[in-house]
Amino acid sequence: MKTFCIKSSDKAIQQDIQAKIDNLNKPKGSLGRLEDLAMQVCLIQQTLTPSLAHPCHLLLGGDHGIEREGVSVSPREVTWQQMINFTHGGGGVNMFCRQHGFKLRIVDVGVDYDFSGIENIVDCKIARGTKNFLYEPAMSEEEFDKAIQIGSDLVDDCISEGCRILCIGEMGIGNTSPSSIWLSLFGDIPLIDCIGAGAGLDTPGIRHKYEILSKAKERFTSHGDRHDVRSETSHTCLSPCEVLRYFGGFEMIAAIGAMLRAAEAHLIILVDGFIMTACALAAIRLYPDSQDYMIFTHCGDEKAHKMMLDMVDAKPLLNLGLRLGEGTGALCAFPIVDSAVRMINEMNNFDNAKITKYF
């Protein structure tokens, strides 16, 4: 796997940032979370005058072998159909990108469809979907490394255009299944507590999903015939990469690579819902300091998502009941981050406004 150089944001200017925030013409602390966000953004960019220049949104598509087991209410073809819909500007992600001025890149990392001749889809296809992790690893080590590199390279493209803030979204029918197993394994949480309705499963559907994922998890964690995914010394201590490679989707691993490169480059990373929080959790497991660069934007209604956020002590900005994916929660939260940056850049201070500082 590609190595990243990710360091915790330098806190040397923290006192200067706080002094600037406290001297804005307002009661101390009266703008609440906006003040916290301004502090985080300033630390990420190492400046008292932060910028949200050239916001970019990566929409990563990939199909999942586990979908063949009926773990999603939506059929596989919805992935490629929605990807084409995005090229016509008709998706939720398109609307929110237009609203907030984000450049949208639609990227095929592993969709089970031939997009030849279709404009506005970036071709990074590794394979036409992952393998079925009920029976075998979702991807090889080579494919895993390639997906990480794809995500990193996509961020480099954004950086070359002057990007300072990044959203990542996903399109992949069935990707709540690997997210649930990642949560269970990384958090040592019973799998049944990590599984929800996804895009709309009913109670029997959730039960079926649990039975399938439980079998897959058991086969992975058993010591019998899984030497293809674990070293002789790792039977009692799974490495994050083993877990990610065995269950992940190409679009999810690429998202992790994108997050890690963005953190390395000191970009602001807006983290969306359940799937992207799972990817953020994985990135943090690989490089703990990457969390300094993440703003968690939305918490959905499923308890598993809240458990994920609690694991990294994240306090999401919104709870709108969204479960669309695509990065829509992050895009909806962007104006709040924008308000925090405008606050520290545009509000007057007590001296300039000739107002008595009363604290």
Describe this structure in words.
- It is a single chain.
- The protein is built from 13 helices and six strands.
- It has helices at residues 14-22, 32-45, 77-87, 92-100, 141-160, 176-187, 203-221, 240-247, 250-264, 274-286, 303-311, 328-346, 350-353; strands at residues 56-62, 103-110, 122-123, 165-171, 268-271, 294-296.
- It has a six-stranded parallel sheet with strand order 3-2-1-4-5-6, with helices on both faces.
- Helix 10 links the parallel strand 5 (268-271) and strand 6 (294-296).
- The longest helix is centred in the middle third of the chain and has 20 residues, at 141-160.
- It starts with 13 loop residues before the first helix and ends in a 6-residue tail after the last helix.
Largest sheet strand order:
3-2-1-4-5-6
Mean pLDDT over the residues:
93
Radius of gyration from CA coordinates: 21 Å
- The counted number of beta strands is 6
What is the number of helices? 13
The global form is globular
Kindly report how far apart the N and C termini lie.
52 Å
Low-pLDDT windows of residues: 224-236
What fraction of the residues are assigned to beta strands by DSSP?
A: 5-15%
State the secondary-structure class: alpha/beta
Which sequence of SSEs, written as H and E, runs from N to C? HHEHHEEHEHHHHEHEHHH
Q: How would a crystallographer describe the biggest sheet?
A: 6 strands, parallel
Tell me the helix content.
Answer: 40-55%
